[in-house]
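Reviewer comment 2.1 asked that we show a complete input and output for one of the modelled complexes. We chose the S-adenosylmethionine case, as it is the one discussed in the main text.
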Amino acid sequence: MDMVDPARTALTDAFGRRISYLRISVTDRCDLRCRYCMAERMQFLPKNQVLTLEEIALLADLFISRGVRRIRLTGGEPLVRRDIVDLVHRIGRHLGGGLDEVTLTTNGTRLAQHAQALTDAGVRRINVSLDSRDPDRFADVTRGGDVRAVIDGLDAARAAGLSVKINMVALRGVNEDEILPMLHWCDRQGFDLTLIETMPLGETGEDRTDHYLPLTQVAESIRRHHALSPVAHRTGGPARYHAVQGLKVRLGLITPLTHNFCSDCNRMRMTCEGKIFMCLGHEDHVDLKTALREGGLAAVEPLIDRALRLKPARHDFRIGPGVSAAVQRHMSVTGG
Ligand code: SAM
Ligand code: SF4
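Response of the prediction step:
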């Protein structure tokens, strides 16, 4: 594809924010059913509604030509998609030619099979979600997952030279007591750790209010053991990083509820159906799949400009009695 003049076509929203980071949910399917993310019996999309590898790759080409410099593949679980490594190869062709990095967020259950192939395709860092290292607790939070598979996946990732950040959703009464041990474990393993507040996205059959744990509180209890000092390190996402006194691990905090980070948001998200959502917390979107299938890339471009105008100033998540799903769409659909 011809590269387009970036100064003329850069993706800038109505509030002057430059969009340089695209998250692509490559599938809504998953082999786990984390309680805060999905319902036990999820209805998944029929295959013909999901973008093909070629469609995702074409859209990625277009976004890169408009100034996107980072792409994160997510889901659902990206590694349950059979052609995932081919897709990474296809997108990875832009590395060093417009694209700075292609990364992945995964639950890690199939990482042992794929880690080396991902490295070979150009991935350098991955985020792996791990809410507990205790086998029973992990099985409970994920409704049936095997933590051993994730630990094996992490070993394979390290052996393949991938740098790893662990994502842990902080859940009151579930894994609160594991946060400090997880920080120490990540330090020993050479991983970074990011803690995430539960967001009210999609019904899961459970009340999130009960398990919502503000990270302001968590940071306070970590500070009783280690001083935390903010560092400039950024990875393009919403995490704010801290150096942890006495340890090498960096601690990231994603605080959509206690500290809004929208003013410097640089992200847009594409679902596996080709819908562009400009914000996790809003329903406004444009549908690129229909445009692409009916009119080709020429029909897609004006929709991207429309999407930019739709980007809101901020999300307005709240959590509390009776508000456990502010947005009906699950995180697994929009892509975490
Ligand atoms: N399956 C992959 C995984 O678990 O890493 C990628 C998709 S998952 C939706 C991406 C991230 O979103 C995970 O770290 C998960 O813990 C987080 N997540 C899912 N639902 C969430 C929610 N309601 N609030 C906060 N984080 C959530
Ligand atoms: Fe699957 Fe990730 Fe959602 Fe857990 S958080 S159910 S692993 S998509």
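The CA atoms of residues 92 and 122 lie 6 Å apart. We note this here for comparison with the apo prediction described in Section 3.2.
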